[in-house]
Amino acid sequence: MRLTWHGHSTWAVTVDDTDLLIDPFFDNPHTALEPIDVRTPDYVLLTHGHADHIAHVPEFTESTIVATPELAAYVADEYGIQDTIGMNLGGTVELGDAAVTMHRADHSNGIETDYASSGGMPAGFAISDATPTPEDAAECTTFYHAGDTALMTEMREVIGPYLDPDAAAVPIGDHYTMGPEQAAIAVDWLGVERAFPMHYDTFPAIEQDPADFERAVKKTGSSATVDVLDGDETVEI
User: Fold this and answer.
1) Residue 59 half-sphere exposure, CB side, CA atoms within 13 Å?
2) Which one of 33, 69, 134, 224 counts the least CB within 10 Å of its CB?
3) Cβ contacts of residue 229 below 8 Å, gap of 6+?
4) pLDDT digit string (tens) for 162-221?
5) Is 189 exposed, middle or buried (0-12, 13-18, 19+ CB in 10 A)?
6) Alpha-carbon span 14 to 2, nearest angstrom
7) pTM assigned to the model
8) Half-sphere exposure of residue 154, counting CA atoms within 13 Å on the CB side?
9) Degrees to nearest 5, angle at CA 18 with 12 and 19
């Protein structure tokens, strides 16, 4: 599985021959790319409807959009997107070579329109190279994108033991999501081998030094390796 961080919460994920893009938002200081520079993904996954997560959805109208039914319907109507998949919390769908499981995130999800519509429950995604089950989740390679979230016990009680992610991208910006200390606890609860900070330094309210996150992870006793990626950097898991 290949992962590329394009800053903020925007990740490109390749599983065998399937390309996915999560939360396309390229107006951030960690990427030098424009949406046109990115290979058109097979699927675009949306965690929720805030502008800094869906701003560049209109640039990917040839992709299939995957989101909660409410958010999928919104982008279909707003941007004229033909192909959408509405899924919901706890569900797993096969997207090409990837198995994608949606899980809750503790956040808000109002779409910033004149009528302030709801995008349904905010979410995170576990992306695996095989459908995870309690018996063979450890045999899968799984990347967990936590979305915009607070620390929540589901990370310890459900996502970690059931989906068994190998790597996780967690927000550390504070103010709107977890900060470094709570994100470090999330990493420990998830039991991942690798952790990637995201959703920081995009604007003043979420300015953070990722070294604080790295120190906080060590303080929990977690054995996870913290990878602080440069924008547009690619890693393999």
Assistant:
1) 16
2) 134
3) 5, 196, 235
4) 999 999 999 999 999 999 999 999 999 999 999 999 999 999 999 999 999 999 999 999
5) buried
6) 5
7) 0.96
8) 15
9) 20
